[in-house]
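ok here's Diguanylate cyclase (GGDEF)-like protein/PAS domain S-box-containing protein, seq below lol
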Amino acid sequence: TRKRDGKNGMLVFDNSMLDTARERHEIEQYIEAGLKEDWFEAYLQPIVSLGDGRIAGFEALMRLNHPEKGILAPGKIIGIAEETGTIGRIGDRVLEKAISHLARISKLEGTEATYLAVNFSPLQFELTLPHKLAALLLKHHIAPSRIVVEITEAVLMLDNPDVHAVLKQLSEFGCRIALDDFGTGYSSLSYLNRFPVNIVKVDQSFTRSLSTGTNDVRRKSRMLIKGIRTISHQMGCSVVAEGIETTEQWEFLRKLGVDYGQGFLFSKPMPIDNMLTMLEMNSEAKSNTIA
Ligand code: C2E
Ligand code: MG
Ligand code: MG
Ligand code: MG
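and the structure came out like this:
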């Protein structure tokens, strides 16, 4: 954004704009360096069955691990990567890492059936995606049925024939499709009808509103979640709640019939080595449950 000065219409930038431009430029450089130096990582967060606390799967969450600056979260990266066109290369890198992580996890006892959920940006929905994914799965000996493709309505709103074709192919290939951040933005219920969606992920703002605000707000939040759950189940979709931070929220969501959940209560997203250690400790304790 540019600001027009009162005097003779000259364009001037205030310091905060300069900071934004500088930060943007820095991040563009981190992205390029990250691709070259292999700084992109796929952190994993467990997705838990709310009935019994068992781990059903893992969501891969992108991180840029800068050796000096530390960890950069996707919020800082994705928008810029989409604008500059690097998102495709980043996505490929993160996808391959995530699949190789699932292959390592699969070698542990009792984790053979766990799934991997991967987030995709609208720009990654190219006609080459199913083939690319198939090749990676073959290489790492992972069945397509263990992959969940997470998309937001931004993908579906494109209403692009290629997107339709890719979703259909992924679905026929055996992958499941999850609709992420459901209930925010323009989320149209008709998406559940028009696209091969298998999983609805209720946005974390709903989880938060279960335990904040007035009694009336909480009561209405419970009604909303119950409604989404009912429609989703009737459409043949399972339901995942995001952002579970307290046992109270877990209990509410379980009673509301939500199938799965993820959140800091169970585990923060973590690097593969930490995840393997945690899973090994669980299996020594003879339980695949968490928390
Ligand atoms: P998302 O897919 O909805 O992921 C959930 C976000 O909530 C993650 O943020 C996760 O770290 C955070 N989260 C999980 N549990 C809790 C909790 O209990 N409390 C709170 N406050 N937050 C929790 P993150 O990792 O910063 O990712 C943000 C978004 O960036 C993701 O939202 C997803 O839309 C996008 N994203 C992440 N990884 C990728 C990727 O590899 N490719 C693409 N295209 N997008 C990605
Ligand atoms: Mg997601
Ligand atoms: Mg989400
Ligand atoms: Mg989100």
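fwiw The radius of gyration is 21 Å. kinda neat tbh
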